[in-house]
Amino acid sequence: MKEEQSKEKVKKFGMVIDLDKCTGCGACMVACMAENNVPFKEDESKKLDSITWLRIYKLTNGKSFPDADICYLPRPCQHCGGKGDHGHSPCVSVCPATATDYNKETGIVSQIYTRCFGCRYCMAACPYHARYFNWWDPVWPDGMEKYLSPNVSVRMRGVVEKCSFCFHRYQLAMDKAYYEGRREIEETEYQTACTQSCPANAIAFGDLNNSGHAVYELKKDKNAFRLLERLQTNPKVYYLSSREWVRRAGDNYLKDEKK
Amino acid sequence: MDSALIPRGVKRCPTWQFALWIGAAGAVLLWGVFAMLLCWFKGLNQTNMNDSYGFALWIWADLAVIALGGGAFFTGFLRYIVGKDELKNIINYAVLIGFICYSSALLILAIDIGQPLRGWFIFWHANVHSMLTEVAFCLTCYFGVLTIEYVPLILENRQIDKVPFFHRLGHNMHEIMAVFAATGAFLSFFHQGSLGGVSGVLFGRPFGYREGIFIWPWTFFLYTWSAAACGPCFTIMITKITEKVTGKRLVKQNVIELLAKISGWMIGTYIIAKIIDTWYWAKVTAPAAGFNLMDFYSNNPFYGIWILVLEIVICGVVPAIILTSEKGRKNPAALMTAIILAVLGACVNRWVMVLQVMAVPVLTFENWVMYYPSWQEVATTILPVAYGVILISLSYRYLPIFPQEQELNPEV
Amino acid sequence: MFPFCFEWMWDMSHMVFMGGLWYALTIIGLGMTFCIGKAFYDTFFDKGKDDNHH
Predict the structure, then answer these.
(1) Which CATH number fits domain A11-248: 3.30.70.20, 3.30.565.10, 3.40.50.1820, 1.20.1070.10?
(2) Rounded to whole angstroms, how far apart are CA atoms B379 and B373?
(3) Can you give the pLDDT at residue B3?
(4) How far apart are CA B272 and CA B222, in angstroms?
(5) B125 near A CB under 8 A
(6) B379-390: pLDDT as tens digits
(7) Where are the domains of chain A?
(8) b/e per residue, A92-104, with b = 16+ CB within 10 A?
(9) Chain B touching partners, 3 or more CB pairs below 8 A
């Protein structure tokens, strides 16, 4: 009984993104940057050192008109559970200074900016390129620092950062719940900035273990897939697409290998 | 001017010539120091690294110098533990080269990290599951051991040796050097191995990932093995270069040949293991992740199958064949070719396991990313070379590094 | 690194890793203590001045 209770309490926050709905508008990226005080450069043309916790990829099926098709794929941190879902995500296990951690209660992979010393081993380990290094000190245009979120610390030069599933929102929601004498939060009380900003309602967020949350059923959809599942990284971000070529683009297959 | 400091019975170049030489190396050193300071004060935006290339030239240089510095631990192991007494004639130099390699590696790491002032976190907040933690601990400890092995050499300087305390300290350290050498071999086994583990454990990167035993991927053992195999070749190569520069014979040929023979057999066995590893990876590990071997060697402007052939056949099989045959070892040109190829082989292996791992796309909708270093990266990578030249020059001039020098170069 | 660091856990991984580390450090430390201590002793009592290690 006790075991059952504690099992119920273990949350596994995750996302289900419907790629058939995503228009690639970028609202989620903007919301993410504003919410999490993500720094930007004066010249953002060189994307290899830009920080985009949530990045939208443009996929094409490689065919010409009239069969040409495109798909936009938003990629936040996948918050991998690792092999067997024990929390041995590719990045967590390699960090030498325990600066990135797998939260067993929420399944969220955190990044402790004040402890990271910038060895970038986690970046090398992440196959999704979801981790970003602060190559520069963050500089905000005059007056913009007043718009920074007080709930998210600004990162300094020389450390790695990444999507946190807006963990500060979870903390705020939990604080509120505790204040009101509750131990649990409702699905709507904790939603990420990208989820809320998506005009097409393509992103659903919630506890993958909670049957009351939308993501619980969505992830079971026959068109659901995760990126690079064969690597056994066990991501918590699911994608939906009715298009076979999009689903196939989620992983690597040998030539003439059938899915 | 400095003749009182020069060991007895050997000849050294005039002071002005030496000063000029040190000055030239010093200029290169200063260039490197300038680049290093730029990186420290302005940050890693001075480099051409990016979010796809978190590991780049420096980490390769780091892994390469540590592999090549492996000559120190393996020669020490052979001399003190196995009891190959002839190697006492080259062990000093092996230690000195190892000391330079390891101090350089530590310096490179200090420049490479984004927050150098937090470098100590790796020890204090150690995550014992990370290969890099193991690297940091064993590397630092082994650097301590190398310092302990190098100090008695400094104490043998003519003037320092006159101080009774230093004379006795040097003697005592020599007496129990086997204990330090054994500890060094133990530490080296782990840090060479864990450097191999750095890419081997990356299960998100099919190009680098290898299966293994318990927590150690096969690359763990391959790295230790290759360092023990190719490290002595680097020692021989630097010895030969030193002989060329000084115009003297410093180590007898039988010593070189003995070390080359052991190295040859090590390379031979290593390369067999490496071929098996590569075959298993190409046939089983990578296909399980959805990759064919040629996916890693095509659709990009640089990394072709040639690099695999270069590493395994040209810089592995060829030197192994030359060094294991007596005829090959006796032929100076063949010996030197094999030595250079073996050194190159270790460097190529480290390059592939660092930079190619970063270059290969894993997501199907990403492309290969190429990288070339900035001048600051090149300068800071050359910095250890200049530092090495200076330390070798100073040590050669003032310390009795080569026990056979006097015998091989009798004063007329 | 030390049991009082909050990351420390008394599990197998820590015991093996840190055990190996402290074992190596102890040998190095004791070895150097012996060398330096004996050198002081010998110097003070004027012993071992003819020892030669070449």
Answers:
(1) 3.30.70.20
(2) 10
(3) 87
(4) 10
(5) yes
(6) 999 999 999 999
(7) 11-248
(8) bbbbbbbbbbbbe
(9) A, C
Name every residue whose Cβ is closer than 8 Å to that of residue A146 and which is 6 or more positions away in sequence: none
B-proximal residues of A, 60-89, CB under 8 Å: 73, 83
Which residues 6+ apart lie within 8 Å of B140 measured at CB? B106, B123
A-contacting residues in B 278-307 (Cβ below 8 Å): 287-292, 295
pLDDT at B98: 95
Contact check, Cβ <8 Å, C1/B124? yes
Query: How big is the B-C interface in CB pairs under 8 Å?
Result: 78
pLDDT at A152 over 90: yes
Fold of B49-371: Formate dehydrogenase/DMSO reductase fold (1.20.1630)
Q: Which residues of A touch B51 (CB under 8 A)?
A: 48-50, 123, 129, 131-133
Q: Kindly list the domain boundaries of chain B, sorted by start residue.
A: 49-371
pLDDT at A3: 45
Task: Tell me which amino acid residue B396 is.
Answer: Y
Long-range residue pairs from B165-168, CB within 8 A, at least 24 positions apart, any chain: B165/C39, B165/C40, B165/C43, B166/C39, B167/C49, B167/C51, B168/C38, B168/C39, B168/C42, B168/C43, B168/C48, B168/C49, B168/C51
User: Which secondary structure element, helix H or strand E, spans residue B212, and what is its range?
Assistant: strand B212-213
Question: How much is the pLDDT for A9?
Answer: 72
pLDDT of residue B40: 96
Token pair 């420290």 in the structure block, residue: B40
Q: CB–CB of C42 and B168 under 8 A?
A: yes
Please list every residue in chain A whose beta carbon sits closer than 8 Å to the beta carbon of residue B113: 117-119, 158
Single pTM value for the model: 0.93
With CB atoms and an 8 Å threshold, state whether B119 touches A117: yes
Closest CA–CA distance from residue C38 to any residue of chain B (Å): 7
Cα(C2)–Cα(C17) distance, integer angstroms: 12
Write the pLDDT tens digit of every residue in B170-215. 999 999 999 999 999 989 988 999 999 999 999 999 999 999 998 8
The minimal CB distance from B358 to the residues A94, A117, A124 is found for A124
